[in-house]
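Project outcomes to date are best conveyed with an example. Our students and postdoctoral researchers have been running inverse folding experiments weekly, and each run begins with a structure described purely in tokens. The record below, which covers 277 residues, was selected by the lab manager from last quarter's runs and is presented without edits.
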């Protein structure tokens, strides 16, 4: 990380909350009425769609600084191209070919791991601030959150360049927290089908129709750089459409869980970062 970029940013954003538009999102004042209203808004959006979008969560100046930082880190990203089904499970060849568990797509993207981000970088300051974690717990309706204990996966920056694509899939975690730092020229739309499955019903027929091109029930999240997104993707089929153009899509993924000590498997680390240590 170059000193020329880091020093001015560090001076402007001395504290992690300096990055946030606190007038719009008073996440540092838990006792205020505005804080409780914000928490209520997030919970309402999550209950209705399984997603809450906070546009302009970080200020315009903060977005510029975070994007500059991410662009300097981007060359460190490990780029992977993998094939798989929407359930992120091994293909079961005993199933019919039209079963969505056998319908294979390709995902291609890069990822900068947590341990590749120097201490003092702005995105680390924001992620490591307890105040943000406490707000997220309240917004998600959780008693308490803990940062991932994974030195690679706790925080990462997804780097999607021209031609990259994140296939239709379900998450294996209850929620994902992301912050868009830089958008691409075209493509890169976040599409999802809320509540397409639940604990009682997998709804394979509906999933298959989406995989074969149906737009029935497909929504797009309106996300601009600086937007914080809380997304419950275990029951929502979702993807990022193909990236177009020379400007990469850069998004920070902040890892939290409701229990301490969570780490990724060695297999997942190797797939995402090309290493497991």
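After processing, the design step wrote out the following sequence:
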């Amino acid at each position: 990380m170059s000193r020329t970029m880091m020093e001015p940013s560090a001076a402007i954003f001395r504290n992690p909350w300096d990055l946030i538009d606190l007038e719009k999102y008073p996440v540092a004042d838990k006792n205020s009425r505005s804080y409780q209203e914000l928490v209520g808004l997030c919970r309402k959006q999550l209950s209705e769609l399984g997603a809450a979008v906070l546009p302009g969560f970080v200020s315009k100046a903060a977005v510029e600084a975070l994007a500059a930082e991410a662009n300097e880190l981007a060359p460190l990203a490990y780029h992977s191209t993998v094939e798989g089904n929407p359930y992120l499970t091994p293909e079961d060849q005993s199933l019919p070919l039209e079963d969505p568990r056998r319908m294979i797509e390709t995902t291609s993207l890069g990822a900068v791991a947590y341990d590749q981000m120097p201490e003092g970088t702005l995105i680390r300051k924001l992620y490591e601030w307890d105040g943000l974690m406490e707000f997220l717990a309240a917004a998600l309706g959780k008693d308490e959150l803990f940062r991932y204990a994974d030195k690679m996966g706790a925080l990462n920056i997804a780097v999607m360049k021209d031609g990259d694509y994140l296939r239709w899939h379900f998450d294996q975690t209850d929620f994902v927290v992301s912050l868009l730092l830089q958008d691409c020229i075209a493509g890169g739309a976040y599409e999802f089908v809320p509540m397409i499955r639940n604990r009682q019903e997998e709804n394979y027929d509906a999933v298959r129709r989406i995989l074969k091109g149906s737009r029935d029930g497909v929504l797009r999240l309106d996300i601009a750089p600086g937007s914080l997104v809380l997304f419950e993707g275990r029951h929502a089929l979702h993807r990022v459409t193909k990236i177009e153009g020379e400007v990469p899509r850069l998004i920070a993924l902040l890892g939290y869980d409701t229990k301490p000590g969570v780490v990724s498997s060695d297999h997942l680390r190797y797939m995402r970062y090309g290493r497991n240590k």
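The CA atoms of residues 24 and 57 lie 8 Å apart. The chain has one domain: 3-273. The training component of this project remains on track.
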